[in-house]
Design goal:
By secondary structure, the protein is mainly α. It has ten helices and two strands. A hairpin with a 2-residue loop joins strand 1 and strand 2.
Length: about 280
């Protein structure tokens, strides 16, 4: 939750960049958000500093469930797979445990992720536009009324896929990098080791999750009529349309803020995670 609070402004601009000029080539129309830093400046200019913390409440609800489950279930699942020696656990067991814990956590937390995306996507409105949601409670109520309970699980497939990829990348990369450095006596257990391992894990996560994260954001944010999306029929349809209209670069919109969010988020998350394990007497990851 601390990591999500620190990186919420980056998450907001990432969402805006992923939706900017949706299904239009970069030559057909100018982009509103011209990159990461200009995008942040524009949000502050149009919406004030509070604009960078849109969706924060939903993000806290999401982190309290999703991250708790995926981090908390990782070690027990790894043990179930027969990983008894942390220093010499096969990488495939770490990946499988990470993917499983991420899938469970993201599926349960999908409603809060959906609301987070929709709140963060709300930029400055024109005089003809009205606010989609005024807050988390408003969003929950409106979605239940117009889309039903199933509407809260809009985008669940790409969300679970993203979480599986992210957790299967993030935790095992952190775990494997850390023990590789320890086994080769390049670093000792402690804060510097945690930060280096987190930085590597964050970069790998950004590379592997950016395309499916873009698809997830677009599926979740699209408007619906009669329970059907107005732009996309499925995640595969969203990917196909994006590639056709925007090329491969379209799937990597928001890559820099995605990396800049996951990197610090990973550092803060695992730093606090390791310290809390130490405080309560649990051995390091």
């Amino acid at each position: 939750m601390t990591g999500a609070t620190v990186t919420n402004p980056v998450d907001v601009i990432k969402t805006r960049l992923q939706l900017d000029n949706e299904l239009r080539s970069h030559t057909s129309a100018p982009r509103k958000y011209q990159g990461f830093l200009r995008g942040i400046g524009l949000i502050i200019a149009e919406e004030g500093f509070r604009g960078l913390y849109k969706g924060w409440s939903a993000s806290m609800l999401r982190e309290g469930s999703y991250s708790t489950i995926r981090l908390g279930a990782y070690e027990p699942l790894k043990s179930k797979l027969g990983a008894t020696d942390p220093a010499h656990t096969p990488l495939w067991k770490k990946i499988l445990a990470g993917a499983t814990s991420g899938a469970i956590g993201s599926a349960l937390a999908n409603p809060t992720d959906l609301i987070k995306v929709r709140l963060q996507a709300q930029g400055k409105l024109s005089p003809q536009e009205s606010v989609r949601y005024t807050g988390v409670v408003s969003a929950f109520r409106e979605i239940l009324q117009t889309e039903g309970v199933r509407g809260l699980w809009t985008g669940c497939t790409p969300t679970v896929c993203r979480a599986m990829i992210l957790t299967a990348t993030q935790i095992p990369t952190y775990d494997h990098m850390k023990h590789t450095l320890l086994n080769h006596q390049l670093m000792e257990e402690g804060v510097p080791l945690h930060i280096v391992s987190s930085m590597v894990a964050g970069l790998m996560c950004a590379i592997t999750t950016s395309p499916v994260d873009t698809i997830k954001t677009r599926i979740m944010n699209q408007h619906k009529i009669g329970g059907k999306g107005l732009k996309y029929n499925s995640p595969l349809d969203a990917a196909r349309q994006c590639l056709k209209a925007e090329g491969l670069k379209g799937l990597y919109k928001g890559f820099i803020p995605n990396w800049m969010r996951i990197g610090p988020h990973t550092i803060v998350t695992f730093f606090i995670f390791e310290q809390l394990r130490s405080i309560v007497g649990i051995r390091p990851v």
